[in-house]
């Protein structure tokens, strides 16, 4: 087992990448398209939670970026450290290619994310540099500390992105984005309640194809996998393992459709909403801009398609 947990990239390289993306984002900002940035704690979280919506936005020409706030270097039962972080970065890069989105992995150790001022500044810069209309993240009550702190960091940035002298090396946003949460199963202190649910029926196979790129997680079992996982998921048989993956994600996104059926009917109407097989759902954060139903329709322009 590899235990090295080196940082992957020199800071100068990291900031160089961010600077070039900032220029690109400014060039795109006036094209009339939406700009969505989604934060996940690890290289797979955002892909899992909003990969279907990302594909739908990208198909319509909107700009979508997925950010992993840690490098995922603890997320495997057999390898760890720099080699695993590099591998997982390549996996989400391939998933992004399949989805038609952008991706960035921050060089923070898996399991060590803290809601620090430095990290709050990093999140605020990313949201500003992307000129975001919509920001997605975990809720701050979750089983994993990295998930919780990702949610807290994004919440803490929700006001600060518009404050001129906070991280003054980046331009403050002229209007506050809408901030939204991914669903989870946790009930305390309050349960997830969707403000919008979207059908994935037209992109479900594409989402499965994108998730298929995350081999270390979906076929090898990530941090809690084992040799037995490889056998159960037929990890060495690309055709058989993808069928298992399709069945697994059918249950997952099918479960979301069934659980939030009332929201689907609200947005699609009785007949169409009742017929949806696979779905994703999102809840508006109390921080950031509070959208009307019409604005949510503009941010999720999928209901007249």
Structure characteristics:
305 residues; alpha/beta; Rossmann fold; seven-stranded mixed β-sheet; globular
What separation lies between the terminal Cα atoms?
49 Å
Structural class: alpha/beta
| CATH architecture call | 3-Layer(aba) Sandwich
Q: How many separate domains?
A: 1
The arrangement of helices and strands along the chain is: HEHEHEHEHEEHHHHHHEH
Strand order of the largest sheet: 3-2-1-4-5-7-6
Q: In total, how many beta strands?
A: 7
Average pLDDT value? 92
Q: In words, what does this structure look like?
A:
By secondary structure, the protein is of the alpha/beta class. The chain has one domain (11-297): Rossmann fold (3-Layer(aba) Sandwich). Helices cover 47% and strands 12% of the residues. The chain is built from 12 helices and 7 strands. The protein has a 7-stranded mixed β-sheet, sandwiched between helices. Helix 2 (45-59) links the parallel strand 1 and strand 2 (63-68). Residues 9-20 have low confidence and may be disordered.
């Amino acid at each position: 087992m590899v235990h090295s947990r080196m940082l992957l990239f020199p800071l100068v390289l990291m900031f160089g990448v961010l600077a070039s993306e900032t220029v690109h984002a400014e060039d795109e900002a006036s094209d009339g398209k939406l700009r969505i940035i989604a934060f996940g704690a690890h290289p797979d979280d955002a892909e899992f939670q909003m990969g279907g919506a990302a594909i739908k936005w990208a198909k319509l020409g909107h700009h979508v970026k997925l950010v992993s706030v840690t490098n995922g270097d603890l997320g495997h039962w057999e390898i760890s450290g720099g080699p695993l972080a590099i591998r997982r970065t390549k996996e989400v890069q391939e998933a992004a290619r399949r989805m038609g989105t952008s991706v960035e992995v921050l060089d923070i150790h898996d399991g060590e994310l803290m809601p620090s001022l430095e990290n709050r500044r990093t999140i605020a810069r990313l949201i500003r540099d992307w000129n975001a209309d919509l920001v997605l993240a975990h809720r701050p009550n979750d089983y994993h500390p990295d998930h919780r702190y990702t949610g807290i960091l994004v919440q803490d940035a929700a006001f600060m992105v518009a404050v001129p002298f906070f991280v003054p090396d980046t331009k403050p946003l002229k209007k506050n984005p809408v901030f939204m949460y991914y669903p989870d199963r946790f009930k305390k202190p309050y349960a997830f309640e969707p403000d919008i649910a979207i059908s994935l029926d037209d992109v479900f196979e594409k989402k499965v194809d994108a998730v298929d790129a995350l081999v270390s997680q979906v076929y090898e079992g990530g941090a809690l996998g084992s040799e037995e996982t490889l056998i159960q998921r037929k990890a060495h048989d690309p055709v058989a393992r993808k069928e298992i993956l399709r069945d697994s994600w059918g249950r997952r996104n099918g479960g979301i459709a069934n659980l939030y059926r009332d929201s689907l009917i609200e947005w699609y109407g009785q007949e169409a909403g009742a017929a949806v097989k696979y779905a994703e759902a999102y809840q508006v954060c109390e921080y950031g801009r509070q959208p009307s139903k019409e604005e949510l329709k503009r941010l999720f322009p999928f209901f007249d398609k």
